[in-house]
Amino acid sequence: MKAKKNKDSFVYKTKKGLSPSTVSEISKLKNEPSWMREKRLHAYSLFKKKPIPSWGPDLSNLDFNSITYFLRATEKTESTWDKVPDDIKKTYDKLGIPEAEKQFLAGVSAQYESEVVYENVKEELKKQGVLFCDMDTALKKHPQYLYEYFGTLVPPNDNMFASLNSAVWSGGSFIYVPKGVHVDLPLQAYFRINAELFGQFERTLIIADEGSFVHYIEGCTAPQYRTDSLHAAVVEIFVKKNARVRYTTVQNWSKNIYNLVTKRARAEENAIMEWVDANIGSGITMKYPGVFLAGKGAKGEVLSLSTAAKGQEQDTGAKMIHAAPNTSSRIISKSIVKDGGVGTFRSLVDMQEGATNASSYVSCDSLILDAQSHARTYPYMRVKEGDSTVEHEATVEKIGEEKIWYLENRGVSKENAESMIVNGFVDPIAKEIPLEYAIELNRLIQLEMEGSVG
Description:
Blueprint: E1 12-13, H1 20-29, H2 34-49, E2 71-72, H3 86-95, H4 97-102, E3 107-112, E4 115-121, H5 123-128, E5 131-134, H6 135-141, H7 143-149, H8 160-168, E6 173-177, E7 187-192, E8 199-200, E9 203-208, E10 213-221, E11 229-231, E12 234-239, E13 244-252, E14 257-267, E15 272-279, E16 284-287, E17 290-293, E18 299-308, E19 313-322, E20 328-337, E21 342-351, E22 358-368, E23 374-383, E24 388-398, H9 401-408, H10 414-430, H11 435-449
Parallel strand pairs: 3-7, 6-9, 7-10, 8-11, 9-12, 10-13, 11-14, 12-14, 13-15, 14-16, 14-17, 15-18, 16-19, 17-19, 18-20, 19-21, 20-22, 21-23, 22-24
Antiparallel strand pairs: 1-2, 3-4, 5-6
């Protein structure tokens, strides 16, 4: 079930369209230091020169002049749920944030439109020295981290939407985990677009110092509108020596959302970076989480799941850059398409000179539920080091009548037979997601797949 629209209320929003004055206005409203304002304006100048990508889904209907780039829903970030305005609270009640708190999750941050409106970090995290806050707060309280790391993994000239995000970013999460600290329970963020013709441009920065561990989970929703909205986020993750980071996304944007996201991590010596990426909603998604394996023995993994139905195009995949010896990576992709949906998988494995004894394994599987749908695969492998190993395999299958017949003859109804086949197909990804999210993910997939066979 898609999220329903709540009343569109706000305390401030910029005029539609983007200009240098809009960029400066956003920076001024946030009372940012001059160096961040200069970064924004520089990124805007790059954005104006960047063409809309033509190699993937059709983005020609994306009208940048019709979008509102900043909307403030409330005056301040609250640390207790009772103080959040009622209209925003009702939205997040539906998303389960109070329930999440009752389950003693380590930390919860909720972003509504452009900024974080609710934030609560457990005392245990504070005692461990873990920093978890929204990016706007981080810029005020911990500017040294943003000054050093912001835009170094995803520079503003990386692509058009990285430029746009760098110019108008607002909200998002900042996490710093000190050396040797293991955050036992997941840190969570919820992102919600409620306004029409709105752009959400959160920026997330995670730094896991040597020997540390953190698992960050984000959920994304939006109501259904007749007009299109834009979500263009940027995520930068730094995994230091012997550290490990897992980043899980369960995305269920409504089908009028352009979901155009750049996610990248850098893994140092013996570090581990894991992306778990589930994309159920949006009209168009373009997202390819990447890992730059910079230190010897570093490991990278992307587990990706997407479903595409009528009016949806999920263009997803992963990038693994091997730049050091003994590095390893794994990319596992599962795609389901029905009712004319399009699922596209793109991957890049780059074995650079010096990446001796490095290895990579890529597997992409597509499940096509009807003759109108399309599944495409574009794997790319660039090998400059002879002493390395790259493996790739791909499968495309249909839910054939013979499989349904086989299960029906063993007392399983046609509907349940289809459900069993789909659940078995997605299980390698779903089992990697925390239980409460896996239950929600399976429910969403079942809703998407209703009536797909017969």
